[in-house]
Write a structure and sequence with these properties.
Layout (H helix, E strand, L loop, with lengths): L11 H9 L5 H5 L5 E4 L14 E8 L4 E5 L2 E10 L2 E8 L4 H4 L6 E9 L5 E8 L5 E4 L8 H12 L2 H4 L6 H7 L4 H9 L4 H28 L13 H8 L6 H15 L5 E6 L5 H14 L3 E5 L3 H14 L7 E4 L5 H13 L4 E4 L13 E7 L5 H9 L9 E6 L5 H7 L4 E5 L10 E5 L4 H13 L3 E5 L14 H10 L7 E4 L5 H12 L5 E4 L12 E6 L7 H8 L10 E5 L4 H8 L3 H17 L2 H4 L13 H14 L5 H14 L1 H9 L1
Parallel strand pairs: 5-7, 9-14, 9-15, 10-12, 10-13, 11-12, 13-14, 16-21, 17-19, 17-20, 18-19, 20-21
Antiparallel strand pairs: 1-8, 2-4, 2-6, 3-4, 4-5, 6-7
Helix pairs in contact: 7-8, 8-23, 8-24, 10-11, 14-25, 15-23, 19-21
């Protein structure tokens, strides 16, 4: 079989770039599928275009292009015409196009249709099409240009038969209507027709999802020996007695399941899923209480410093009165503070340790670690969770608890968390007032600002969330900085405003959020950085700018930042009304919303993987839908039923080969 280095066009620098991206062999290269496709097979008449999709259009420029400059950026604008109508076309930071595009000369373009800041339809930064067809677009690897990547794939495909053997049994392919693997790979890289591309992506995505679930099931089966934390029959009730509020029925049921896992001879691996405010933190502390009672240390890893600090505050109120010392470890700590924290963790002085990814960094040693908890870690997958578990200095594995406040439909949760048992907290504590949600069109903006001021007079606070940090001519959306400046100098100049965003200096961000939490600010303008980790009971108004740019589940998460007390709370979606947003107005049930979101957008967009291609399930960003999730899960059950031992063995071997590096990395860390 040909070596990767034998392909024409691959020098030392490009080989190193491929190696860094995990592409070490021809097989690795062939399994690196296009991130997306440019379909220029069909022309859309200019009179029929609508915003929200990518299209191929053809026409002629009515006049010479116009060059404009804006804050260091340039834009070239031209009006494209055909016999059905016309549309403005704009290119950003490509000033040379002003000379290249000539009036009345035919021009075929492919790109996205959106609206400018005045609401007018336009085509933004399209590519010029020389030859129409279905063109693969690969994710950038090092400095390798797209054309070179396509040429490398054409060369590699000549070796396909030697590189990529069939992975699925014939009986399985026939039962689920799947094409052969090599046909799928050829058509996925260079599709001859749309139909062939659909058939290819169905086969590859189904295989990836099935093999991932098989590998996850293998990891689950490895939980043979764990640290036993004897909780005792009365442990749950004893814990609930220490709290100032009674548990819900769902909380009691789930904590009992956790106690049963802790007492079992194999390590617990459990996902606790529940909507915002259902009381998952109390369940996590219940597990930490049981671990401490049995003499074990526990850790809780949160995705942000804000959330980690919030958990520490709650732990000091709930666990320290029970004689369980708590401490914090963050990546941004000063050297002296970090040394002291590491010493208290290593000595076991802190029985409950809370922190961020710093908890799995080098140099962190634990004393008798028996329980690891990860909060809001649904984007990180098996490997990162296992790295924390590997920190235990014991032959037996520590117990693992995963919390998620992002409602995920059961079908998807079973795929994402195939190595975990699933508990759902499907009941909210009494006293939570449902958030009233309304869609607000642009013409009612002034009335919204009047409402915010009237709420501020009552001592209530408001979040205003924007999709961008800085203003961009290329993207039609309100930015946090633009909105903050506009409000501070205009409609809300009489209120106390603050601003926060993801890349803000940590100290500045913490100080802004502290001021908002303590009531020193009336309005907090931010990006989605506040999606998790901010608990401000006095915040009763959530305004989400350009709400149509967010998924329903993310909108629901943001809405969960208000309504955390007994006072009436509101969520205002700044957007034109549509069926998708109306779903949010009709229900506060995160699982109903997540199911609808998954149906509308598919798993790739639901997980945010279609845009950046990063997912723990290879292929999830391609063609998966809800039906395929359920089909692949039912296929796994069918394979494990009596009579299909040979087929099950073949699929397990394929899963081991597909995920060998990941499994090996987990085992070694």
């Amino acid at each position: 079989m040909m070596a990767l280095s034998e392909l024409k066009g691959l020098g030392k620098a490009r080989l190193e770039a491929l190696d860094k991206a995990g592409i070490k062999t021809l097989t690795d290269l062939l399994l690196t599928l296009p991130a997306r496709y440019q379909d220029t097979t069909t022309l859309t008449p200019l009179g029929e275009i609508a915003p929200g999709g990518e299209v191929c259009v053809s026409g002629y420029p009515k006049a010479a292009p116009r060059l404009s400059r804006f804050k260091g950026m340039t834009s070239v604008t031209v009006r494209l015409c055909d016999e059905t109508g016309s549309i403005p076309v704009v290119w950003f930071n490509q000033p040379w196009l002003q000379q290249q595009i000539k009036p009345e000369e035919p021009l075929t373009l492919y790109g996205r249709i959106d609206r400018d800041k005045q609401g007018r339809i336009r085509m933004a930064s399209p590519i010029r099409v020389q030859e129409r067809g279905i063109t693969p677009v690969y994710k950038a690897v090092g400095g390798i240009p797209p054309k070179v990547m396509r040429d490398l794939m054409r060369q590699a495909l000549t070796q396909l038969e030697d590189c990529c053997q069939e992975t699925l049994p014939d009986i399985l392919r026939i039962k689920y209507g799947l094409c052969e693997r090599n046909f799928a790979l050829r058509q996925a890289h260079f599709p001859e027709t749309k139909e062939n591309l659909f058939i290819a992506l169905r086969r590859i995505t189904f295989e990836n999802m099935l093999l991932y679930q098989t590998a996850a099931a293998a990891l689950r089966g490895e939980r043979s020996k764990g640290i036993v934390i004897s909780a005792g029959e009365t442990a749950c009730e004893a814990y609930w007695q220490t709290l100032p509020f009674p548990p819900t029925g769902a909380q009691k049921r789930v904590l009992q399941e956790i106690a049963g896992d802790l007492s079992a001879p194999h390590a617990m691996g459990r996902l606790v899923q529940g909507d915002v405010g259902c009381g998952k933190t109390a369940l996590a502390f219940g597990a930490m209480y049981m671990a401490a009672q049995a003499g074990f240390q526990s850790v809780l890893m949160a995705p942000t410093e804000i959330l980690a600090r919030q958990h520490l505050e709650s732990a000091k109120k709930m666990l320290e009165p029970l004689g369980i010392p708590c401490g914090l470890l963050l990546g941004g700590m000063k050297a002296k503070e970090r040394r002291e924290a590491l010493q208290k963790i290593a000595s076991g002085e802190w029985q409950a340790v809370i922190g961020t990814h710093a908890l799995i960094s080098e140099g962190v040693e634990y004393e008798n670690l028996g329980l690891v908890i990860t909060d809001e870690q649904h984007r990180f997958g098996v490997r990162q969770r296992r790295l924390l578990s590997k920190k235990a200095d014991s032959d037996a594995a520590p117990n693992e608890l995963v919390l998620s406040a992002t409602p995920i439909p059961r079908s998807l949760a079973l795929v994402l968390y195939g190595d975990l048992d699933l508990s759902i907290v499907d009941e909210l504590p009494p006293g939570r007032t449902p958030v009233k949600t309304r869609i607000v069109p642009e013409e009612k903006r002034q009335g919204l600002y009047d409402f915010i001021r009237s709420e501020a007079k009552k001592g209530q606070q408001t979040y205003i969330v924007c999709p961008l940090v800085e203003e961009s001519e290329a993207i039609d959306a309100r930015s946090a900085q633009e909105t903050y400046a506009e409000l501070a100098m205009g409609p809300l100049s009489d209120l106390r405003l603050g601003m926060t965003y993801g890349d803000q200096e940590a100290a500045e961000k913490d100080e802004t959020i502290r001021k908002f939490a303590s009531g020193e600010l009336d309005v907090l303008v931010s990006t989605t950085v506040i999606e998790v980790g901010v608990n401000v009971p006095a915040a009763t108004v959530m305004v989400i700018e350009n709400a149509d740019r967010f998924g329903l589940s993310q909108l629901h998460q943001l809405r969960g930042r208000v309504g955390r007390g007994a006072k009436e709370s509101w969520c205002f979606l700044m957007a034109a009304p549509n069926e998708r947003l109306k779903t949010l107005c009709e229900t506060n049930d995160g699982f109903v919303i997540a199911k609808k979101d998954l149906e509308l957008r598919g798993p790739g967009d639901f997980l945010g993987t279609r845009q950046h291609g990063d997912t723990m399930i290879p292929g999830m960003a391609m063609g998966a839908d809800v039906q395929m999730l359920e089909e692949s899960s039912s296929c796994l059950k069918w394979l494990r039923s009596p009579g299909y031992e040979a087929e099950w063995a073949q699929v397990k071997e394929s899963a081991r080969a597909a995920f060998a590096r990941v499994m090996e990395e987990i085992a070694m860390n």
